[in-house]
Amino acid sequence: MSRNRIALALIATVLTMVAAFTLAGPRTTRAAPSLAAEGKTIYAQRCEICHGENGDGKGPAAEIMFPKPRDFTFGEFKIRTTSSDSPPTDGDLIGVIGNGMPGSTMPAWKNVLSKDEIAAVAAYVKTFSDAFGGEAPQPIKAGNRVKPDGASVARGAQVFRDVQCFKCHGDAGRGDGPSALKLKDDYDNAIFPADLTQAWLFRGGGTANDIYMRIMTGMTGSPMPSFADALVDENGNPDEQKRWDLVNYVDSLSPDTAPEPQAAIILKPIDGDIPTEPAAVQWQSATLYYYPLVGEIMREPRDYTPSIKGVWVRGLYNSTDLGLLVQWDDRQQNTGAEGQPQDEIDVQFQTKVPEGAERPYFVYGDADHPVNLWTWTAGASVGVEQTGKGSDSVAPQAAQNLTTKSYYTAGRYSVVFRRSLNTGDAEDIALSSGVFVPIAFAASDGLRGETPGHGAISSWYQIYLGKPVPATNYVWIPVAVVVAAALEALLLWAVRRNAKRDA
Amino acid sequence: MTRFAPLLRHRLTQTIAIWLIAFGIYRFAIQPPIPSSLLTIYLGITTVVILLWVSSDDRGLNELKAPLTALFVERENRNVVGLRWLILILIPAFVGWQTYLRVVPRVEAPPELRSIHPAPPTTITFEGKTIDLQTAKNPFRDASGKPDAAALAAGKVVYGTHCVFCHGDALKANGIFADSLNPRPADFTDPGTIAQLQEGYLFWRIAKGGPGLPTEGKGWNSAMPGWEGTLKEEEIWQVILYLYDATGQHPREAGNQ
């Protein structure tokens, strides 16, 4: 009886194992095609709109994009850890699909698709070209990072000049080098060298490791070459010190993530004059604020791909004047000659200090709520006060009260705007300390054919002239400390006296 | 346990424990949270009551006083003397710091509150045609509410060519402009957006954008474009189909508002 049972159990176990093996066998061999088939469904749902049904980068949404969605039939990929003539590894593809390509419309899919789904769609992307036919590509090996101290960064700056990165990326890395404006990618689209001071817009990420890989492997399909052959020692072996010095230098030019825009620009009063020179040292003492800009796509014609991504602002004020130093990166100075529009920057204020919550429309105001614009154009290189009552009705004011001074160096504009706090002009914002005043920024780049109102713009933020703290306020601090110490001394004395008496 | 019993019975331990429990209750258990000024008053009263209670008999008073007296009188034990100096210095420093915070006030921008779904108008004029938002029906749904397949495909293209920069490919407010906008674009996968609304409401929002919002919606700050003049009436209905289909949400039924 019991022997029968054991036999039965044995047979059952053997049968289950055989069944498991036969079922599992075919599944492993069929894995690759079914992975790609599963990817096809995801691709149709998520990627086709940009990359096109046939993977040729001609999806319906491609038209308004710059850079264009990738044409996968070329088999060219920018974000690789493999040498410049080989395709990316599966890990590279999965990584770039998951993280997206910042600064382009290629979205990060890692919070939308599961790991398996990303692997599947990556497998499907590989089927569009025969670049992946050969052996599995091998990642290159990076040596240990050299400590990113001042000496390494200084050596890296020299390497940057020696191997001529500046030809494309410019002396200060702002993507404004002598060849910057003439570049085309393999698909015959214009392409600009990255602005190395804005690493959060790097397609492949802004960490030191990311930068190492982009420089050593190049970005296939774009003019960004591989420098693996240039950064070698006299025997032709990889010179890891030189490589990492260069990486440390590039990494030092920018934080990895975008600066957080603050809700308000908060200024402290100063005693002396407001400097008019953008290079004046006083500006260094003012807090630096960053505001990102988006394309003006609120109405036709819409600018989906503005070239100016953000402005940096510093402010100073004294008892009579307000000064703002506004800086932004622009690859070329366009003064309106050569048939291109001129570069322009606008600082927008709500004309009246807001009483209720109501505000002007952030795109140059509206009929009922005008805005006061401080406009600087590169052609005349002077600032003009304007009144905006909507994007189609912006006009210079009769009374002009603005002083500006500007310069352009190494791919960056710096403009100082200075105006008295209260001009007495009803069309001007009257500024006084202790109130929040709405402020916004707009910029247009003539190089890309942008015109005022069809460039880049920010939402409303606020500016606040801090009330000076009366010197007498500070007196309370030592007073409070002394009183606290005196009370302590009293307590100490009382406790000790009691203790002595008790003893 | 027995080792801790004397400690637990000690009046100083009890005082501290009761005080901490009271603080915990005031701070975390009361909902909605009470303002900090009120919290200070409550804690002040509690402190006085606890002190009165412990010091109401000699034992309590002595137990409370003894450690403090020891701390203030001790001359031999280096640690206790060190602790005394630390406390003597920290208290005035703390008082000075608190005074500094009060005499030099910090400024913070007032928060921008907006009503996300203000009441819509009853009718709107779209390209010269009056549309009643209460009764407007999506012409591309059949009687059972099923979307027309061709219209849905067309809606996806409208979305990809007009909405993707802000609302993002995954309809999760993840477009490249999204992080730079305040308020952020609507996240259509969030049950708090389109699932709360009728299709007529969406038609109004898409046609008129931020500038079409009433005052409480604070449309002057909204980057949501008005699409009248760019998109045709059918295209707006088509993109609405796509918003619901792609997110798996359903429009709110009419008369259910």
Please outline the helices and strands.
The complex is a heterodimer of chains A (503) and B (257).
Chain A: H1 2-46, H2 48-51, H3 90-99, H4 115-126, H5 150-162, H6 166-169, H7 208-217, H8 240-252, E1 264-267, E2 289-292, E3 294-295, E4 310-317, E5 321-329, E6 344-350, E7 371-377, E8 382-388, E9 394-396, E10 403-409, E11 412-420, E12 436-444, E13 456-457, E14 461-465, H9 471-502
Parallel strand pairs in A: 1-14
Antiparallel strand pairs in A: 2-4, 3-13, 4-5, 5-11, 6-7, 6-12, 7-8, 8-9, 10-11, 12-13, 12-14
Chain B: H1 5-9, H2 11-29, H3 36-54, H4 58-73, H5 78-103, E1 123-126, E2 129-132, H6 149-162, H7 164-167, H8 199-208, H9 233-247
Antiparallel strand pairs in B: 1-2
Helix pairs in contact in B: 2-3, 6-9
Keywords summarizing the entry:
heterodimer; A: 503 residues; alpha+beta; Cytochrome Bc1 Complex, Chain D, domain 2; Immunoglobulin-like; 9-stranded mixed beta sheet; 14 strands; globular; B: 257 residues; mainly alpha; 9 helices
Question: Your description of this structure?
Answer:
The complex is a heterodimer of chains A (503) and B (257). Chain A has helices at 2-46, 48-51, 90-99, 115-126, 150-162, 166-169, 208-217, 240-252, 471-502; strands at 264-267, 289-292, 294-295, 310-317, 321-329, 344-350, 371-377, 382-388, 394-396, 403-409, 412-420, 436-444, 456-457, 461-465. With 503 residues, chain A is an alpha+beta fold. Chain A is globular. Chain A starts with a helix and ends with a helix. Chain B has helices at 5-9, 11-29, 36-54, 58-73, 78-103, 149-162, 164-167, 199-208, 233-247; strands at residues 123-126, 129-132. With 257 residues, chain B is mainly α. Helix content of chain B is 50%, strand content 3%. Chain B contains 9 helices and 2 strands; from the N terminus they run H-H-H-H-H-E-E-H-H-H-H. The model of chain B has no long low-confidence stretch (mean pLDDT 89). Chain B is elongated and about 90 Å long. Chain B has 2 domains: 5-103, no CATH class; 123-247, Cytochrome c-like domain (Cytochrome Bc1 Complex, Chain D, domain 2, Orthogonal Bundle). Chain B has a two-stranded antiparallel ribbon with strand order 1-2. Chains A and B meet through strand 3, strand 14 and helix 9 of A and helix 4, helix 5 and helix 6 of B.
